[in-house]
Amino acid sequence: MREASRELPSKALFLDRDGIINHDSGYTHRREDFVFMDGIFDLAACAGRAGFLLVIATNQSGIGRGLYTEDDFHHLMRWVTGEFAARGAPIARVEFCPEHPTAGIGPYRRVTDRRKPGPGMLRDAAAALTLDLPASVIVGDKASDAEAGRRAGVGTLILVSDDPAERRLAPPGTLAMTSIRAVTDWLLRVT
């Protein structure tokens, strides 16, 4: 009798949104304000070829602050994920956290471990997609992105920033890089 095959865990490339996928112009929520970062589609395609699932994990306190709605966010992200898919780099999942512990309005004002540096979004994606977190990579532009990865057990933490303060705050072992293209070069070397 043959044993039923078990689904093997996948590795993920977790991407922060503002500052990694798009230029961070502050609470970006409209397509006309969304400018993709140089090299992001090359990174996504390279990761896909290397067997990584692409997952976006983004704090979106602009929703909680009342600057835009969850519907606005979903509308924009349908377009963003469509742009990735059109370039052969589909996004497997989008996780977002609209809450903020002090600036949120009404039900959005609360502490949650889904807000980075909490690990909740990464763990939720891992459960939904059967991810191998130690084999996964997180790329963010803030130390809080790397810290979320550390707390979730993500194996490789990458900080794309030349800000000395962010670099100092990043967890030990975080790889500091200055551009998305540098991340792609690194990924090509290690896979």
Tag the structure with descriptive keywords:
single chain; 191 residues; alpha/beta; Rossmann fold; 6-stranded parallel β-sheet; 7 helices; globular; disordered N terminus
Report the CATH topology name.
Answer: Rossmann fold
The CATH class is identified as: Alpha Beta
Content of β-strand: 15-25%
Q: List the quaternary state of the chains.
A: single chain
CATH superfamily: HAD superfamily/HAD-like
- Uncertain spans, ≥5 residues at pLDDT below 50? 1-5
Q: Quick one: biggest sheet?
A: 6 strands, parallel
Structural class by sheet pairing and helices: alpha/beta
Shape: globular
Structure summary, number of beta strands: 6
Topology, please?
Blueprint: E1 11-15, H1 40-49, E2 52-59, H2 61-64, H3 70-86, E3 91-97, H4 120-129, E4 137-140, H5 143-152, E5 156-160, H6 164-169, E6 175-177, H7 180-190
Parallel strand pairs: 1-2, 1-4, 2-3, 4-5, 5-6
Give a structural overview:
- The chain is α/β, with parallel strands linked by helices.
- It has one domain: HAD superfamily/HAD-like (Rossmann fold).
- Helices cover 36% and strands 17% of the residues.
- It has a 6-stranded parallel β-sheet, with helices on both faces.
- The termini are far apart.
- The N terminus is likely disordered.
Question: In brief, what are we looking at here?
Answer:
The chain has 191 residues and is α/β, with parallel strands linked by helices.
